[in-house]
Amino acid sequence: MADTPDLFGAWRETLQKWEKDTNAALSSVTRDEGVTRAMNQSLSMMARLQAKQAEVMEKGLAQANLPSRADFRALNVRLDGIERQLARLSDMVRGLARTDGAAAAAVAPGPAKPPRTRKPPSASKKPEGPSK
Amino acid sequence: MSDVGDQGVLEKFRVEMERAQARQRGGLDFLMSAGPPRGQTPKEVVLSRGTLNLYHYAPMTDEVYRTPILFVMATTNRAYVFDLAPGQSFVEFMLKRGYDIYVIDWNPPQSDESRLGFEDYILDFIPSCVAEVQARSGEDEVSVIGYCMGGVLALMYAALHTPGPVRNLACFTTPFNWREFGLFNTWSDQRYFDVDTLVDSLGNVPPEIILASFDLLRPASKLASQMQLWDNIWNDEFVKSYRAVDRWGNETIPLAGQYFRQTIKELMNGNKLYTGELEIGGRRVDVGNIKAPFLHAVAEHDHIVPRAASRELVEKVGSLDKEEVVLRGGHVSLIAGANAVRRLWPKLDQWLAERST
Fold first, then answer.
1. Which parts of B148-198 are beta strand (E)?
2. Beta bridge partners of B47
């Protein structure tokens, strides 16, 4: 059968080539020492500014008698702590239930665990043993 | 042109017109619908402590292999990449092949966790998870599998716990020679990159910085992938897979400050994992100490971890039973999506099955 032109194939190929070429060109720019230095300087400046801004905001919120982000974070930490304690307690309860067979059935009737006896498919294909 | 050729052109034109109509419908659906559900495979949170989450997935077979598996997720992203959607789930695949699966997922570290460092991850978090897996499964041995930076953590853990509970160790796209990290190495050159100022000012490293650095590796690819999406928006399967992976890729999480500082200074600038000079908790991390069967799966077109950065790992690991496989795909498509279903997942199953009884 004669070859037929692919109407959108050429566009797809162009897109792939554009992506490859643009990535290569921009990578060579960001590989440059001067660009790396400039990128990192602006990153450091941004970090310092952000830290300063947070400090100023915190002071402003304190003056307005409003909770700051740090206060919410502290609350979050305390809630995390409470959740952790609860998780530990529920683990302990489950552990106790596991050690007491009768109680286990009543308190935590979890799903039956499958036996850990599975063999790889290759094991079933092996011959039973060498003939003597 | 021949009649046959004319018919071929007309047929292609007809197909493209149909796709154009489907694109309009698909585009509307894409804009109007919520993101696909993720992490649907039934699981239970069995350990949760700050940034650390340990999931246990409900077995899907009548009998399972003796040795349980512990997946260690990379610290930059959420672990649902292992469980994107039914039919596209690595975890579901392995469950159906008869494995007992546990996954470490990292929550975004909070400000009070900015002091977490390698010592916490290697000497506390992973050992706690291994102990939990041992207690729940009743087995002493565990197969540990790490993806990307999760692979680095798994390596460090295995190197420091030998002889120990690691029955098998598998790493995916795991960097080892950090001098060969390409652009990341250039950008974090200690002459220009002041990691201390960054961490001291911000505490944890925000996800925007991490995401921007990933995007900067291939600046044109985001736009190109969106155009590719438009081109394929008539294809429901493509769209489903694209959305799941794209959403995951954009959901980068912050990195604990001290952990980031150590990654840059010890691994990137010092290359100490490679040279064997890295110390954690006063003990030297030597991957030559690892004796468990070892598999390293790397992607042929990995733009994040260049081949040169991962190549020497298998040679340096001390195991006698060790293997490296280079599979087609990229950093993410190696473990998730249609490519992974055909290549990595069956390979891992085949490798582990014989070593999990």
1. 166-172
2. B54
* Nearest CA among B249, B263, B253, B183 for reference residue B218: B183
pLDDT averaged per 10 residues, chain A (length 132)? 62 85 86 86 86 86 86 80 78 71 51 87 63 39
Assess contact for B213 and B304: CB atoms under 8 A.
no
What average pLDDT score do residues B287-307 get? 94
Of B296, B253, B208, nearest to B52 by C-alpha is: B253
* The pLDDT of residue B93: 96
Answer whether B104's CB lies under 8 Å from B80's CB.
no
Q: Are B92 and B98 in contact (CB under 8 A)?
A: no
Best of A11, A13, A40, A77 to mutate (most B CBs within 10 Å, chain B): A40
Tell me the C-alpha distance between B335 and B349, whole Å: 13
Tell the burial category of A33 from Cβ atoms under 10 Å away from its Cβ (0-12, 13-18, 19+).
exposed
For residue B356, what pLDDT is reported?
Answer: 95
The CA-atom distances, in angstroms, between B311 and each of B171, B175, B270, B305, B341 are 12, 8, 18, 10, 24
- Report how far apart, in Å, the C-alpha atoms of B198 and of each of B96, B108, B256, B313, B350 are: 45, 18, 12, 30, 44
Neighbours of B2 (CB within 10 A): 9
CA distance A64 to chain B (A): 24
State whether B2 and A2 contact (CB < 8 Å). yes
Structure tokens belonging to residue B5: 């050729």
Of the two residues A4 and B129, the one the predictor is more confident about is: B129
- Measured at the alpha carbon of residue B253, what is the angle toward residues B36 and B301, in degrees to the nearest 5? 75
> What are the angstrom distances between the C-alpha of B74 and each of B105, B149, B254, B293?
8, 5, 12, 21
CB-nearest partner of A4 from B5, B48, B191: B5
Decide: residue A74, CB within 10 A, 0-12 exposed, 13-18 middle, 19+ buried: middle
Task: Give the Cα separation of B285 and B317 in Å (integer).
Answer: 11
The answer to whether the Cβ–Cβ distance between B64 and A39 falls below 8 Å is no
The alpha carbon of residue A105 is apart from the nearest alpha carbon of chain B, in Å, by 17
Question: From CA B131, how far away is CA B138, in angstroms rounded?
Answer: 10
On the question of a cis peptide bond just before residue B175, with omega within 30 degrees of 0, the verdict is no
CA distance A104 to A93: 10
End-to-end CA distance of chain A: 62
Q: Which of A5, A22, A114 sits opposite B61 (nearest CB)?
A: A114
**Predicted structure pTM score:** 0.81
Instruction: Quote the Cα angle for B200-B109-B141, to 5°.
Output: 125
